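Colleagues,

For the teaching module next term, I've prepared a clean inverse folding example: a structure given as tokens, and then the sequence designed for it. I'd like students to try predicting residues themselves before seeing the answer, so please don't circulate the second half yet.
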């Protein structure tokens, strides 16, 4: 009940600001355009995409969607008054890890999509018992014979990135959004010259981290309940289907516009891997950005990652459900996470 009251209160509180932005900026958003299509950071949740985009956006040539812009997509152009109000509603750290969050931190457009259309994937955290329905409808675009949901998604996404481009003075955008890993054909329809960075990571590490992420968001947002068994099944199925779509569709990306990065290599040698990204995707400005990259890397040396444990039963289940990626990249459970006895 309190969560419903809170949602209702904030909706009413921000409604006049939404109307004001629409009145003042609608035409400017429509006319906004970037000379270059975005660079998309792909990869399933908890693959390390946040570290990559936080590091890469130290290079000032890239624009990105900020936390304020993602969570308040229809009012952020009003500027400082909105930012100051928003700070009171913002957690200091993300609910699932120790990553600091500010109004200017890079954030995922999936949050904004949920504010602009009725079938956003993150609405599955409000109604976790229907999470797979939202996933199939708004990520895979299945169960959509008329194509209405797909068209609504494209319209909402384009509106978000147009507003983001306007806020970033036309800089080329760098966008991280894990569900986009399964939307390559749709992204190429909108941005045929987009470039892509795909991150992958040990699935035995990812499963407990993904579960922690899902649980944290469900606790914050849920309006209905879900059992642990059903949550585990959702995690397994969503990862499975996102990665299957990526492997199926990545061949659609033009040659030279996709690079795949192993997170464990990126974590150990971030500057070397960043150089590889810039070189492979023919991006300018790497040498000029090195001091900024090095400063951020140094600032993260004391960051403490969450620690997890897996039971033998969970390891068996991961091995059975995600064998393609485990075999493709040669991962094993050993030394990935602490293994505990049941």
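(Answer key — instructors only)
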């Amino acid at each position: 009940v309190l969560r419903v009251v809170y949602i209702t209160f904030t909706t009413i509180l921000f409604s006049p600001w939404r109307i004001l932005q629409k009145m003042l900026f609608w035409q400017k958003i429509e006319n906004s355009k970037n000379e270059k299509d975005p660079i998309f950071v792909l990869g399933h949740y908890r693959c390390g995409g946040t570290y990559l985009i936080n590091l890469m956006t130290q290079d000032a040539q890239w624009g990105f969607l900020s936390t304020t812009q993602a969570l308040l997509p229809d009012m952020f152009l009003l500027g400082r008054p909105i930012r100051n109000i928003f700070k009171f509603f913002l957690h200091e750290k993300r609910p699932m890890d120790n990553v600091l969050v500010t109004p200017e931190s890079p954030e995922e457009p999936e949050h904004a999509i949920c504010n602009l259309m009725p079938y956003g994937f993150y609405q599955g955290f409000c109604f976790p018992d229907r999470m797979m329905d939202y996933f199939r409808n708004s990520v895979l675009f299945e169960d959509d014979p008329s194509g209405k949901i797909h068209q609504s998604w494209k319209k909402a996404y384009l509106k978000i990135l147009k507003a983001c481009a306007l806020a970033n003075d036309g800089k080329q955008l760098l966008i991280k959004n894990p569900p986009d890993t399964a939307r390559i054909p749709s992204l190429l329809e909108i941005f045929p010259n987009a470039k892509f960075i795909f991150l992958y990571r040990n699935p035995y590490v990812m499963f407990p981290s993904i579960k922690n992420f899902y649980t944290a968001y469900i606790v914050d947002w849920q309006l209905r309940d879900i059992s642990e068994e059903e949550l585990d099944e959702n995690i397994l199925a969503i990862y499975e289907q996102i990665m299957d779509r990526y492997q199926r569709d990545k061949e659609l990306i033009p040659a030279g516009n996709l690079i795949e990065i192993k997170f464990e290599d990126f974590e150990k040698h971030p500057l070397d891997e960043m150089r590889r990204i810039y070189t492979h995707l023919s991006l300018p400005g790497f040498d000029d950005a090195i001091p900024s990259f090095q400063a951020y890397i140094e600032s993260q040396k004391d960051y403490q990652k969450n620690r997890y444990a897996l039971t033998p039963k969970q390891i068996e289940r991961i091995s059975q459900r995600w064998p393609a990626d485990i075999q493709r990249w040669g991962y094993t459970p050993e030394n990935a996470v602490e293994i505990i006895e049941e």
